[in-house]
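Friendly challenge for the regulars: who can give me the structure tokens for this chain first? No prize, just bragging rights.
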Amino acid sequence: MDHAAIAASLSIPSGKTILKVGGSITEHNAGDEAIFDLAMLEALGTARFATATPWTDSRATWEGVPLVTLMTAVGASGKTIRATALNDYVVDVPLVGLAEDGAILAFRRDGQLMPISDKGPLFILYPFDDETRLQNQSFYMRCAWQVARLDII
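First reply, four minutes later:
Bragging rights claimed.
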């Protein structure tokens, strides 16, 4: 995937905006922000993994855009992603290690889009079942559901 080409051609969403990205980014499509609808996130390319989480009743298959891919697409430069949920809950995710740790911004659970009532539309997750080193509070605290905004700081 040519991430530079994606960043250079950040289009305007044609569907409902589900994510706003701001802060230290070089690619914009809405003032000083980059905004995305679902189709734009899917077009960046997706990753899928099955894992249980501390917040769900059972193991599920999660699909979404790798955070490292999204950060490349917006031209992120900084040290931290500050994620804000619809209820104003905030978590900080280090930019370092996103690719190695496999973090995604999930929008599907078991093949279905996630409604707001079930942790959607976007959920920052790690493949906990794939790597035991991810099964600890420092990684659990980087996760957030109902994500609406990412700021690069």
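The helical segments are 3-8, 38-43, 67-73, 98-101, 137-140. Residues 3-152 form a domain with the Sulfite Oxidase; Chain A, domain 2 fold (CATH 3.90.420.10). Your move, everyone else.
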